[in-house]
Amino acid sequence: MPPEVYRTLVEQTNVSLPTLHRYLRLRKEMLGIRGDLAYYDNYPPLVPQKNAPSFKVAPSESIALAALAPLGEEYRDQLRRGFAARWMDALPRMGKASGGYMAGRAYDVHPYILLNHTDDYESLSTLAHEWGHAIHTLFANANQSFEKAQYSTFTAETAAIANEMLLEDYLAANAKSPADKLFYLAQGLESIRTTFFRQVMFAEFQLAMHQEVEQGRPLSGERLSELYCGIVKRYYGEASGVMKVDPAYCLEWAYVPHFYYGYYVYQYATSMVGAAEFTDAILREGAPARDRYLALLKAGGSDYPYLLYRRAGIDLAQPGPYQALMVRMNRIMDQIEELGRQSHG
After folding, report:
1. Rounded distance between C-alpha atoms, residue 234 and residue 203, angstroms
2. Cβ contact 107:118 at 8 Å
3. Catalytic residue among 11, 61, 74, 130
4. Is 164 a catalytic residue?
5. Among residues 105, 109, 100, 213, which one has the least CA distance to residue 164?
6. Where are the domains of the chain?
7. How far apart are CA 103 and CA 114, in angstroms?
8. Phi, psi at 89, each rounded to 5°
């Protein structure tokens, strides 16, 4: 992976911090917080889950098929095949592992999906996400030899997050009420905050740690807390009065398991950037963009992931794709604010 990808990600995220700060001000308003916005205020949902629509498994499959229509019939035929073949264990039960997973490492066997579907929006979104991985696997295995089929995280998460984004857009466009639409928009907004900004914040901290060592400076717990605290306060806009960060959170780095597994968290953020670029292009251009995207999925691990992206028309060492994600985030906030004006008008 060219180092320029990592550095461009961090640089462009810092350029985009005003968009995060706009989100945080909107969060404060939507939650009705009168004093300073605090770090723990990141965690309550923007729209209470109790007000959310319910989705059972069979309707979730139908909604996913409808939402993913822009990906074309070749994609949806594979999805229909998987649903009909019952490769998915969807319902929770005693003794079953929690979470949602796609297991597709057996080259000449179809992928398996484990879910714990509890009839809520998160379950629907997880279903779309994990089937994104499964269809990616089916395409890669069908078009690549065994040694070239296995793909990297750098492309894998794009295949899953693109499905989430198409689902969010479909549900918001077809919402039955303004309240439902607000809920779907809020889910999409939260996803960008957590999958993009928070992961890049972690990635920048990892970069800062390595730069300290490369410059011959020793690392201590105190120094790590100092580095982390400076990054958190910058991201959450303490200097400009957006959020007040309690010093206790300066030690948060020690409790984040990502930092003990090497350089990988940045790939969730780049994958979201790629997904936003692809989905917007597919909805705007239609077949040409869709074909570029499907070619990326079919390529599996046949080349370095950065080069596969380049071949599909996206250069993640350049600013453009990162700016496209901010366009999406601002578009969602525009829609939320418009709903607010309508409700008060």
Report:
1. 14
2. no
3. 130
4. no
5. 100
6. 3-344
7. 8
8. -100, 100
Q: Whole-angstrom Cα distance, residue 195 to residue 258?
A: 13
Q: Tokens 């990297």 label which residue?
A: 152
C-alpha angle 38-40-46 in degrees, rounded to nearest 5: 95
Work out whether strand 101-103 and strand 112-114 pair parallel, antiparallel, or are unpaired. Answer: antiparallel
- pTM for the predicted model, two decimal places: 0.94
- For 143, how many CA atoms within 13 A lie in the half-sphere containing its CB? 16
Instruction: Specify the CATH number for 3-344; select among 1.10.1370.20, 1.20.140.10, 2.130.10.10, 3.40.50.300.
Output: 1.10.1370.20
Those residues whose C-beta lies under 8 Å from the C-beta of residue 147, and which sit 6 or more positions away, are: none
Neighbours of 111 (CB within 10 A): 21
Question: Taking a C-beta distance cutoff of 8 angstroms, is the pair 298, 143 a contact?
Answer: yes
The H-or-E segment that residue 112 falls in is: strand 112-114
Amino acid at position 138, single letter: L
Cα–Cα distance for residue pair 271/86, rounded to 1 Å: 28
Q: Look-up: residue for tokens 């069979």?
A: 58
For residue 299, what pLDDT is reported? 98
Calculate mean pLDDT across residues 193-207: 96
- Give the integer Cα–Cα distance in Å for 189 and 176: 20
**Spatial distance between the Cα atoms of 150 and 83, rounded to a whole number of angstroms:** 23
Residue 101 host element (H or E): strand 101-103
Q: What is the pLDDT of residues 130-165, one digit of tens each?
A: 999 999 999 999 999 999 999 999 999 999 999 999
Going by the DSSP 8-state scheme, the letter that residue 198 receives in this structure is: I
Q: Which helix (H) or strand (E) holds 141?
A: helix 121-143
Which tokens hold the place of 191?
A: 């996803």
